[in-house]
Design a protein that fits this description.
Elements: E1 19-24, E2 27-36, E3 40-44, E4 54-59, E5 68-77, E6 85-91, H1 95-113, H2 115-121
Amino acid sequence: MPEQSDEKRSDPRAPIELKVDYKRVNSFLADYTKNISRGGTFIGTDKPLPLGTRFHFRISIPGLGEPFTLTGEVAWIAPPGQMAGMGIRFVYADSEGRAAFESQVERLMEKHFGPTLASKLLGK
């Protein structure tokens, strides 16, 4: 499985833990993100979904009443010796959904890094 390095990422990531709920076969799982960007996230889990799997999940963002429901695709699985989990690429139904979620991620980055550093990281 390919390893995801910072150089391959097209969007900056904020190290943040957010609750993620999703379904695997006949059970619902609750795991946590370890970082997030406008394009994807890493979900820490001992039972990653198979590479290429598309699935719906909910991600809870602090200060937001309802969780975002997103579609993701397993882009990579952490190799042995690294933190167990899977890299998820967000799949959006339309540009409005993408814009709404990306603005929330940008707000999280501003809150975590401060407005000046977040603007630099986001290329603004």
